Amino acid sequence: MMNSSDQITSGGGYSISTGLTYGILFCVGVFLIIFLLIIFDCTRLRFPHNRPSHRNSGRNLTTIEEGVDEATLSSYPKLLYSQVKKGSSTASCCSICLVDYRETDMLRLLPDCAHLFHLNCVDPWIRKHPTCPICRNKPVAGQHTSLVAEVDTLATGQDN
């Protein structure tokens, strides 16, 4: 008969209980490593500001982009599409909403780049961002008055 103190050994001289102990320790170690990796990954998801972001690379995170004020926005020219399309090769749809312009649509002309948009599409953008949604140019102050005269000339078909 075998006593509880007797250990059954395999051919290599290791006892079964020793092999079982190593197996349990190995499984606990693997479980612990997986658990720690999950905890680490969850904390990264909870605090995303700790991770570098490809969208914010090269930008100062404390800089907040502000759009133009209402006075500046209202100084940008508003035009009817029917007037603008007469004398120029203007785009036929708004680049923001992708809807074709109708004859009675009111458009906003951005200074510097002369891109046209639906008034209701571009105004919310300009209030938040000081740049054109297409070319990202910042409108130059004072330039829009000469641009309006140029558009008026094109709309009426008169040459100077």
From TrEMBL:
The keyword Zinc applies. The chain crosses the membrane at residues 20-40. SMART domains: RING (SM00184). Keywords: Membrane, Metal-binding, Transmembrane, Transmembrane helix, Zinc, Zinc-finger. The keyword Kinase does not apply. PROSITE patterns: ZF_RING_2 (PS50089). Residues 94-136 form the RING-type domain. InterPro entries: ATL71-like (IPR045899), Znf_RING (IPR001841), Znf_RING/FYVE/PHD (IPR013083). It comes from the Eukaryota. One of its GO terms (molecular function) is zinc ion binding. This is RING-type domain-containing protein. It comes from Carpinus fangiana.
